[in-house]
Amino acid sequence: MAVDPVGRDLKAFLAADSDAPVVMLNLLRFAEGGRESYERYGAALRETFLPRYGGEVLYAGDGAPALVAEEGQAWDAVLLVRYPSRAAFSRMVADPEYQEVTRWRTAALEEAVLQPTVPWTKE
């Protein structure tokens, strides 16, 4: 199951407007006992890396039973994280200090979706 982004996906991510703000949707399914490890990662993200790269958590919450979903599509937690640009996100994930703490995230998760979003324009 997918947990961490890979190089080719980051390259495609940056090919879109790398200077425009982006909100990343995080859908998380924890491994057994993984919530504590993710909370450790989350604390480092909020306290060190988001401020360093201009990001902010817009929303973080536990998943409740899905109203509309196929079997296996329910998630344990959802986060929305805003970055000032795709380039800022890319710089963060390339940061050697950040890479050290991602082991807590990787160990915590059974499966994840990391979906960049683009705001709808008003017509």
From TrEMBL:
Source organism superkingdom: Bacteria
Native source organism of the sequence: Micromonospora sediminicola
Coiled coil: none
Pfam families on file: DUF1330
InterPro entries: Dimeric_a/b-barrel (IPR011008), DUF1330 (IPR010753)
DUF1330 domain segment(s): 35-111
Name this protein carries in UniProt: DUF1330 domain-containing protein
